[in-house]
UniProtKB/TrEMBL annotation:
Keywords: Membrane, Oxidoreductase, Transmembrane, Transmembrane helix. It comes from Aquicoccus porphyridii. InterPro entries: FAD-dep_OxRdtase, FAD/NAD-bd_sf. One of its GO terms (cellular component) is cytoplasm. Residues 6-370 form the FAD dependent oxidoreductase domain. This is FAD-binding oxidoreductase. Pfam families: DAO. One of its GO terms (biological process) is mitochondrial respiratory chain complex I assembly. One of its GO terms (molecular function) is oxidoreductase activity.
Amino acid sequence: MQDRYDVVIVGGAVIGSAVAYYLMRDPDFDGSVLVIERDPSYAQCSTALSAAGIRTQFSNAINVEISKYGGEVIRDFADLTQVGDTRIDLNFHEGGYLFLAQSAEQEAILRENHAVQTSCGADVVLWDRDALAEAFPHLRVDDIRLASYGRSGEGWFDNTGLIRGFRGKARDEGADYVTGEVTGIVRDGGRVTGVHLATGEEIGAGWVVNAAGPRAAKVAGMAGLHIPVEPRKRTQFVFDCARSPQGSARVKGGHLPLMIDPTGVYCRPEGRYFLTGCPPVEDVAVDWDDFEPHHALFEEVIWPALAERSEAFEAVKVVNLWAGHYAFNTLDHNMVIGPHPEVENFIFANGFSGHGLQQAPATGRGVSELIAHGGFRTLDLAPLGFERVVSGRPFLEKAVI
């Protein structure tokens, strides 16, 4: 490890490793990159504990385009990140997302979102009750006014594989990784000049990228800055069915989708089992090290909703559960990307609010463009910049799961 790097990235999970990957692959960038990760096992990172999904069904065009690009990268990932004979297939299950609307308000939102999605070329269709029942006959649909279904470009994949691929290729291209914890950031007026590690070392930096996930506000605070990001707990449950609806779908490929019930409960296949979850009843900030699952959530909220939606889910048994963290942007549930207006070389890549896995490719590319070229070159992510935090202008996303 050197004592100074052109770019120091705080956080080496999927966002930090994506930034390192895109920097090292940019022919116009010839600098040095250091990624600092406090836990190289990634056992408690948001990526590893997520539902590992990607969708184009968002309410604003930027998020749709971000996910469309993410889908391209996921499909080509083995080629893009190959190192020697090592190829990582992300095993993309293109099962789609299925949003269900029960109220007039929910229906209106689905229709508004669909107009945005199709204007961006997303392969999403709206179904009435009869079409929904025909496609997925195990569902009870008498109370459903409208459904929105992603026919392609949506599904789930190997979440830790995405980290391993970006990390492995970035290292192969010359990025350095170190296990350590950043405890301080050195600032000189309008610039940051380095970081302090828990070991007492100081490493100089031309740029510092905050890719610290749920700890984003802690890292920003070290530079005397604030970002409205906090850890919110999400519990995932895996359950078995006595009468599984697997194989009953009448859509291309015969796959069951990730269904989002009007109650907010979601459910998707997970091999022979099913994975499910929902926001907690009281969705509050938690400690960074609090990973105790909300055990009662399944019996009190999730199972009643699923049993009401499908006879197949009346007799189920939980076989596994865990809790992870959303890096929750309390302003508007959208990522914050780019420099702080008062500290030009401190770059935020934070606040993904559960969307970081699918948005990592576009984020990594965008941050690398800012550093290597001075601005966004492919997809204009400027509306997601820090200026909206300063002015308190939310860039709202309605389709948050």
